[in-house]
Amino acid sequence: MKQMSLIRRRSLLAAPLLLGASSMLAQMPRPLLIAVPPFLSPSAALAAFRPLRQHLESQLKQPVELYTARDFRELVEQTRRGEHDVTLLPAHLAGLALSDWGFQALAATVEATPVLILLRQGSVIKTAAELRGKRMGMLGRLSLTTAVASLWLRQQQLEPGRDLTVVTQPSMSSAVISLEQGDVEAIAVTRTQLNLMPPGSPGGQMTLAELSDIPTPIYIARPSTPVAELGRLRRAWHSFVPDPAAPQTVVNSQLHEIARADLQRAARYREVALQQLEAAGLSTR
């Protein structure tokens, strides 16, 4: 399945109809391509990233196109092939990309967010032990949220795939709906992901457990980005002003330089990233 465009500018798609349009198009700067994780549905991502996209277009004076992938595996494969100028990767994978794959640091988002195990409103489940034999919705196997939730289950003497069924969700939007409809009895999400749910999403979920904080996704630029261009991109990203009236999320936060502390938080999950990549049959080098 090909990557799916979330945002495309009509001016880039429309056939030239006016005299000289071909020449004008030739003079337009090429669009900046940004890949984001598939943790939202396309329509939700379109809305969530719109303020940042508009800010970047204003600052960079060039079109910006956002893309997502079918799943985290495809996102990693596309990133390794250098298909996008910038990628927003889960922190554990971004840390590996920066330390081992030659990618360049662009911007950090919020510092950390807790992983939540949620139940639908009115659930009779009261303890982790009562998840035995049930179904839990999680993002793909390369998600840091999934890794932390799986570790927690094992600490509760529950082996994912044996003692309960793990139902892979294409996005957090799908996970929340699956929970509401009773397709799963529990889901694993982060607080910032939950804050990103679009208006009208099912609410009122019950928290069964709040797990440890995890580092949040990081923006990285591909290895071939020239120094001057990297500086230009950093200035644009770091000047983004979040909406103070909206909840703090990965999308709505003060983007800033990736500090040593950010890298240290990501490095704690280096082994998790390596194990996930190996289990998925992907190269770690």
Automatic annotation (TrEMBL):
Q: Which SUPFAM superfamilies match?
A: Periplasmic binding protein-like II (SSF53850)
What is this protein identified as? ABC-type phosphate/phosphonate transport system substrate-binding protein
Q: Which UniProt keywords apply?
A: Signal
Against Pfam families, the record matches this protein to: Phosphonate-bd (PF12974)
| Ribosomal protein as UniProt keyword | no
Region forming the signal peptide: 1-26
Supply the Gene3D superfamilies for this chain.
Periplasmic binding protein-like II (3.40.190.10)
The answer, when asked if Plastid is one of the entry's keywords, is no
